[in-house]
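Thread title: Can someone regenerate the structure for this chain?

I was given the following input by a collaborator and told the matching structure tokens would be attached. They weren't. Posting the sequence so someone can regenerate them.
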Amino acid sequence: MTGIINVYKEKGYTSHDVVAIMRRIAGTKKVGHTGTLDPDATGVLPICIGRATKLAEHLAAQDKTYIAQIILGIETNTGDISGEIMAKKPVTFDEAAIAQTVKSFLYSERGEYLQVPPMYSAIKIGGKKLYELARKGETIDRPPRPVAIHDIAVLDYTPAENAFTIRVKCSKGTYIRSLATDIGAALGCGATMGELTRTQSGAFSIDTATKLDALKAAGERGELAPFVLPVDALLPYPKITIAGEDLARALNGNPLPIALANGADSPKFWVYSHTGELIGLYANDGKKLRVEVLMWTL
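Best answer:
Regenerated them for you:
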């Protein structure tokens, strides 16, 4: 079994929990996710099965969309409402001022902005995961990373709760908890993140995501296959079919002639054997087609 399953992650599961469960359901150790979701967060968590795990990084690099609640006047050690409250500040802003500040984070307004990852994250610094250090009460300097906010809007505002909800489309590596903290800092009153739902991850939408209980039931019936999506449909690059010497080159990981692209203007191509087997994903450097992910070997 090779492909990707669009899992709806519910609260209480870590991303690694979902991977472990999907290993049992799919009956294979070759399972991986395409972008961590916090245990309290919900929404889209694409899961790669079999040889599709080789494409996890490519899928994780795609833009993501979230719906997030931001609570003003509170700062926590985790950047979300589950953490310890470290400070409280008065909130004196109206909805117009909030919307203007939120809009200022758009890529069209400021380009990429440097975001400091939260201490409670899985990023490794000096070989140690930040959350492991945070649980010991340690705080270390984290180098800021450039991220891009492609779209962001205030969906609603509840003055009585000093809270508002945003929809944000962002680049890989963006932490919504850090974005909430940065918005609070820009307003001067501090903020923390409340509820978080990922509604889109690349080609995967929350509308077509499936909960784990439904996948477990399908697996028990031997009917998991309909939930497994083919990788070439999710990364829609042109297809090339090869045979003979070209196939031998491909299976040895060697570059392929650019002429096989037939003039198609694409940065990447899916390469298939003449018998219909998916060989891999190839990048076009203008001179050769070079393998990025080898999916199949003889």
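DSSP finds nine helices and 20 strands in the chain.
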